[in-house]
């Protein structure tokens, strides 16, 4: 479910961490949790190699050659 106008379907303001990918707010992802070391950072950006955060969640592929971060 993606909102693009800054307002959710229930007329609430969209924000990073609400669990909805709000492209209108330029979010790359939004998993709705407070875990910084998964595939979606707390800034609603996809975890990437070199971002200063070591992704420890299963399925993280932002390390060298698309593998697990080291």
Mean pLDDT: 75
Binned, the helix content reads under 10%
Number of helices: 0
- Strand line-up across the major sheet: 1-2
**Based on DSSP secondary structure assignment, what is the total number of beta strands?**
2
Specify the structural class.
Answer: little secondary structure
Rg calc: 13 Å
| Cα-to-Cα separation, first versus last residue | 32 Å
Largest sheet: 2 strands, parallel
Low-confidence stretches: none
Shape designation: elongated
Elements, N to C (H/E): EE
Short descriptors:
elongated; 70 residues; little secondary structure; two-stranded parallel sheet; 0% helix
State the gist of this model.
With 70 residues, this protein is low in regular secondary structure.
Kindly describe this structure.
This protein has 70 residues and is largely without helices or strands. It is built from no helices and two strands. It has strands spanning 2-3, 21-22. A two-stranded parallel sheet has the order 1-2. The protein is elongated.
Secondary structure elements and pairings:
Layout: E1 2-3, E2 21-22
Parallel strand pairs: 1-2
